[in-house]
């Protein structure tokens, strides 16, 4: 077992984050998916444009297409519709009716919108003289043939999927979703059900909340259930998990209590590079490896488990999923009331921010900060940072905050 379990020295948040970064492996592989299945996945290869966008020079308005050198009164000779182009050549003094997106006919270089036209049978008169190129979308003005559209590592949201479809792509190469083996630990835990019990057991909340976060961040989670307070059971479960998992996470069983046996099981199968972080909530957290797979041992208290997952595990999960450029959001706000912490550790206080009438971000702290109070996370909308070298902050102090969107 690693000697770090025998130490009472707290590791700084910065040092723990540096060790996570050093442990982070490359993305876990790639697969080819149709666009309908690729939402929120991460590109594994760059995308080059096989076609120009727009594909052809087209009208940007409903109206008429013509040559700008023509007089203001023109004769209508045809009609061009989106999907049904007009194939003749338009001479000076002539025009064709045209709809938005329809290819511009040969001989035309301008479009006038219908609201600025006066029709008289087959003739049409423009309100004023046009300029060359007005209301025209030129071929390739957005994307040229061969241009790099997206780099590898780009997340595929709705707009980017639409762009891929516009370029004629039916499928795309994306990073595989990392597989995470997740365990809750403790004899006192059981799966939620409608039956009451007075035997001292608790429903396992962490298994569900942690899974929801990990799946939001691009992972496939295999929940290994609850592990009893048995070193042998933990060793057997971890040995099975690492066969297919890219990452192993536990909640609970990682501190110094007599029944906290995860740390002993980890010592048999791998090593721990860091334990006990100077942060509240979340101090009893471990980082290491199990038979070559990254391992996180999270605290058992629900708030501490979610906060450490968001703060320390999320960057690694996103990297495994292919997001090598991801960084957490961090805002600045003015405190509305005094803040109190403990010098020597980073306090992450649950709070609520709002934007006042002047556009300033202001934040207040929730009264209840216990790490067992899961409700304090969804009643909050941010974590307020009180740094290690600050014991308290007066009202009106500028502080950093982390939005809690990922946990709500």
UniProtKB/TrEMBL annotation:
Pathway(s) served: Cofactor biosynthesis; molybdopterin biosynthesis
Record-linked PROSITE patterns: MOCF_BIOSYNTHESIS_2
Pfam family, one: MoeA_N
Gene3D superfamilies, per database record: MoaB/Mog-like domain (3.40.980.10), MoeA, C-terminal, domain IV (2.40.340.10), Molybdopterin biosynthesis moea protein, domain 2 (3.90.105.10), Molybdopterin biosynthesis moea protein, domain 3 (2.170.190.11)
Record CDD domains: MoeA
Recorded family membership: Belongs to the MoeA family.
Name of the protein described by the UniProt record: Molybdopterin molybdenumtransferase
Species this chain originates from: Kushneria aurantia
The organism's taxonomic lineage, starting at the top: Bacteria, Pseudomonadati, Pseudomonadota, Gammaproteobacteria, Oceanospirillales
Gene responsible for this protein: glp
């Amino acid at each position: 077992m690693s000697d770090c379990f025998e130490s009472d020295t707290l590791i700084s948040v910065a040092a723990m984050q540096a060790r996570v970064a050093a442990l982070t492996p490359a993305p876990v592989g790639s697969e080819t998916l149709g666009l309908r299945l690729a939402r929120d996945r991460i590109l594994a290869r760059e995308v080059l444009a096989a076609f120009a966008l727009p594909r052809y020079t087209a009208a940007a308005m409903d109206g008429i297409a013509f040559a700008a050198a023509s007089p203001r009164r023109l004769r209508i000779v045809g009609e061009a519709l989106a999907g049904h182009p007009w194939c003749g050549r338009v001479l000076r003094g002539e025009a064709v009716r045209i709809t938005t997106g329809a290819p511009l006919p040969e001989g035309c270089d301008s479009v006038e919108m219908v609201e600025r036209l006066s029709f008289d049978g087959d003739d049409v008169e423009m309100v004023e003289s046009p300029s060359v190129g007005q209301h025209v979308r030129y071929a390739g003005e957005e994307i040229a043939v061969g241009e790099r559209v997206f780099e590898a590592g780009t997340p595929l949201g709705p707009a980017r999927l639409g762009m891929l479809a516009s370029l004629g792509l039916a499928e795309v190469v994306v990073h595989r979703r990392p597989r995470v083996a997740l365990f809750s630990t403790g004899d006192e835990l059981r799966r939620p059900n409608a039956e009451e019990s007075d035997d001292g057991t608790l429903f396992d909340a962490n298994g569900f909340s942690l899974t929801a976060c990990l799946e939001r961040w691009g992972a496939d989670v295999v929940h290994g259930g609850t592990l009893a307070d048995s070193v042998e059971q933990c060793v057997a479960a971890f040995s099975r998990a690492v066969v297919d998992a890219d990452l192993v996470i536990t909640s609970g069983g990682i501190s110094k209590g007599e029944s906290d046996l995860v740390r002993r099981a980890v010592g048999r199968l791998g090593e721990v590079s860091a334990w006990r972080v100077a942060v509240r909530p979340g101090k009893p957290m471990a980082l290491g490896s199990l038979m070559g797979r990254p391992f996180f041992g999270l605290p058992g208290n629900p708030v501490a488990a979610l906060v450490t997952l968001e703060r320390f595990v999320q960057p690694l999960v996103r990297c495994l999923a292919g997001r090598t450029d991801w960084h957490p959001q961090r805002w600045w706000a003015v405190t509305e009331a005094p803040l109190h912490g403990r010098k020597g550790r980073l306090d992450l206080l649950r709070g609520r921010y709002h934007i006042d009438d002047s556009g300033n971000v202001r934040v207040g702290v929730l009264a209840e900060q216990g790490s067992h109070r899961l409700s304090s996370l969804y009643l909050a909308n941010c974590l307020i940072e009180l740094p290690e070298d600050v014991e308290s902050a007066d009202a009106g102090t500028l502080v950093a905050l982390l939005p809690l969107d990922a946990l709500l």
